[in-house]
C-alpha cells in the first residue's frame, strides 16, 4: 500500500534527482557547486521536503548534463513538485 508521502510529487522529484545525481557520479556537494545552488537546497530537494523553482530545475538539469528526453521528464517532475509545494 502506498502512503501519501510516496505519492507526493516532491518525493517523486527527489528520488529522480538523486538517481540522476548518482548516475552522473556526483556527490551532493559537487552537484550543488556545479549548479550554483546551496547544499541545503539540494538536500531538501532530494529529501522531498521542497519543490524546485523552475530556474533551479533548469540549473540542475544543465549541471547533470541531461539530454533532451531525460531533461523533458526532469522538468515535468520539477513542475509538478513546484506546483504541489505552492500554497
Describe the structure.
This protein is mostly helical. The chain has six helices and no strands. The protein has helices spanning 4-7, 9-23, 28-35, 39-47, 54-64, 68-85. Helix 3 (28-35) packs across helix 5. The chain is globular. The termini are far apart. The model has no long low-confidence stretch (mean pLDDT 92). GO terms for molecular function: DNA binding. Residues 17-65 form the HTH cro/C1-type domain. It comes from Kitasatospora phosalacinea.
- Helicity range of the residues? over 70%
Enumerate how many helices there are, as a single number.
Answer: 6
What is the subunit arrangement here? single chain
- The helix/strand order is HHHHHH
Unreliable segments of 5+ consecutive residues: none
pLDDT averaged residue by residue: 92
Shape: globular
Helix/strand structural class: mainly alpha
| N- to C-terminal distance | 27 Å
SS elements, strand count: 0
What Rg do the Cα atoms give? 12 Å
Strand content: under 5%
User: What's the main sheet like?
Assistant: none
Amino acid at each position: 500500500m502506498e502512503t501519501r508521502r510516496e505519492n507526493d510529487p516532491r518525493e517523486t522529484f527527489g528520488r529522480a534527482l538523486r538517481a540522476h545525481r548518482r548516475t552522473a557520479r556526483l556527490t551532493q556537494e559537487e552537484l550543488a557547486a556545479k549548479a550554483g545552488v546551496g547544499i541545503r537546497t539540494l538536500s531538501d530537494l532530494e529529501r522531498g521536503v521542497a519543490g524546485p523553482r523552475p530556474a533551479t530545475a533548469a540549473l540542475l538539469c544543465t549541471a547533470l548534463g541531461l539530454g533532451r528526453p531525460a531533461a523533458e521528464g526532469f522538468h515535468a517532475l520539477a513542475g509538478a513538485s513546484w506546483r504541489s509545494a505552492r500554497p
